[in-house]
Amino acid sequence: MDAMFDICYLSSDGTTIESDDIPQTKENVWILGKKYSAIQDLDRIRRDISSIIWCTYRKGFVPIGDEGLTSDKGWGCMLRCGQMVLGVALIRIHLSTDWAWSPETRDPTYLKIIQRFEERKQAPYSIHQVALMGACEGKAVGQWFGPNTIAQVLKKLVVYDKWSSLVIHVALDNTVVKEDILAQCIVKNDRGDASDIPDSINVSDWMPLLLIVPLRLGLSEINPVYVEGLKICFQSPQSIGVIGGKPNQALYLIGCVGDEVIYLDPHTTQKSGLVESKSTDEQKEMDCSYHCKYASRIPILAMDPSVAVCFLCRTKSDFEELCINIKTNVMKESQPLFEICEKRPSHWGPSNADIDLQNISMFTDIEDDRQFDDSDEEFEIL
């Protein structure tokens, strides 16, 4: 099985390709809120990166939409980044922060998570469900998303999947409002039928929170004043990365080292298939296709300025710790990325469950109507 996983990292003459994923540096490496030594922890860094569910373009799936699209190449990279963030959240909630994948992994909970992202219409977070829910945000199937749109789509989808046991809150106007989040996450006794929620989730207390903060950190490029704030976010124990990218490409930014961000790239087109029970060679190979052995790096200032910063708070104490970190570190910057307040600003009006996000989008991406072909280079986040 390890040979099956490694085969993608061989050159044409069969020799192993040396990766430049992690630099040999004395600076700390931060991946999904964890600190590593680039020199002493390289194997552990790669193990943890390969444990992330890697969602990429796929081809040959059941047709989506009126045009009958059978591949998301050229338009689905932001959708795939959203899937990756959600995959990290589900693994941390239902397995653990330190859980590690291997080609031999057949943990039933892991399989239940991976099956949620398969290219099946019935899978809660399949490309079909994400693309079709995007239509509610005014995005036709095959049309590209921005970070704000994918955040709103994920928020809607988790409502229909009780097993995931997750609340998604999308911050409005660069402001995290504690009052709104507490209202969403503190579970009341009259919550209703919770039979589909795993026993490991204490529904009488706190529903795990995926907090997504859409931001624009410049007009056409990142303003350097925001660099330190981004690093603080990557170093937060609650960090599960940033949905963003570089011009023409959406990427899942999982961490940083020095003045570079570390990312997983969805721009690889793989065949569709099912993992199911992972009992056949074909199913095992399909499972391996959801994991990437090496990440990549780009300078922070090479990022596109449209991003969505993501945090996972599995418990109320996690959320309180995050709030303290935001107040004492993020908001102390000369130009804070975002702020946190106890109650909704008066000019916002009442919450009304985020003013019925089932019907309207609270965010408008700075996006245009240009058309794209099926090449990997034609996605642009503006």
Automatic annotation (TrEMBL):
Molecular-function GO terms, alphabetical: cysteine-type endopeptidase activity; protein-phosphatidylethanolamide deconjugating activity
Subcellular location: Cytoplasm
Domain Peptidase C54 catalytic residue range list: 43-323
Principal subcellular localisation of the protein: cytoplasm
InterPro entries hit by this protein: Peptidase_C54, Peptidase_C54_cat
Keyword Transport: yes
Family per similarity comment: Belongs to the peptidase C54 family.
Protein name (record): Cysteine protease
UniProt organism field: Parnassius apollo
